[in-house]
Amino acid sequence: MAASTTSFAVPSFHLRICTVCPWPPPRLPSPPSRYQTGRGAAGRLRRCCFQPEKAEWRFDPKRNAVGGARRSRTEAFPSLFFSPSRFKKLSKQDFSSHCCPKNSPPESRDTPPQRDTGIASEKEWGINLLDEKVSESGQNEYGSTWYRDSGEELGENGFRCHWAKMGGKSPDGKSVWQEMWWEKSDWTGYKELGAEKSGENDKGDSWWETWKEILYQDEWSNLARIERSAQKQAKSGIDDAGWYEKWWEKYDAKGWTEKGAHKYGRLNEQSWWEKWGEHYDGRGFVLKWTDKWAETQMGTRWGDKWGDKFFEGIGSRQGETWHVSPAGERWSRTWGEEHFGNGKVHKYGKSTAGESWDIIVDEETYYEAMPHYGWAEVVGDSTQLLSIQPRQKHPSVHPNVEFDASEEDTPPDETGDSD
Q: What single-letter DSSP state applies at residue 147?
């Protein structure tokens, strides 16, 4: 949307986590009486237990006048969004037009991020930094204002940060937006490409997101590493609703890979959380895990978690599904699998409802020893990061390297880094 329009378009504000609801949301349904058996449990051992609603409501503008909201069964955790009927829908913007010729107003970016989209690629973010320094601002005929700036910061050891930012504001100041992009480098080979976006509309709905990818040499292994991360959040200005997500991916040149995410959301009386992680050592070992849970202000809580650990066909799987009623009554089912690598699998489990099983079956073991998206793929998708040019170093200038005797023999941290 051009800056010369009468006002900023107010975004379609997606908050998708468990149940997608028209705004205001309908009354949350009571849990049905059946809980699906946990992963790996025998189907014949299923019992009637409590289960939170696995439903999703989607707003259909064409049916809203006569048929109301449309309901379809999909996910186990709620998802929600602000109804498009409240906000004007924006068309997809051309991010390559971020940096425009001088004195031409930038397009407004008052669109919040969407949930569950993971870490976007360089192409999706479309970072296009200007080579020249720019500092300009303007006002259109209807009173909306805009600005655009760019610059460069220099520091020790060849540090260089090339940045650009732009933003705008509606005539009444209630709708604002800002975006910033940067690339950093120094003489150690460190390179970084990043962006940040934020905004707020006249309803008080606010959002913020940041994205970054870096390249550096690991000081212990001397291997090149690429790390990508993203954080996103949005909050309603009217209702007690909002969500937050944090994603990360880490890779090295020998195939070591780590991926994970933390998510949180709230819709009035209901809150939910989700965490998951994957780790590949590049030599065949793989560890995966997921933990999800939710609760209501009435005291109802439920969740599900599982984990895989494998190497050369030998490994295990465990999981638990649970539910707690407002009165404090707890139901849970735990299950496990031991894979011996010879076609035999030991399956076992039990629940608080009295069911149990302990059997050995002939079953093929399946797991992914290598990530479907690894070092080769991330290098191929990081062309803009790799093309960052560091400052020219004078032949007589050397990097500032400091040696601390107290830290020379300090071993690397092997506890792992979640982020």
A: E
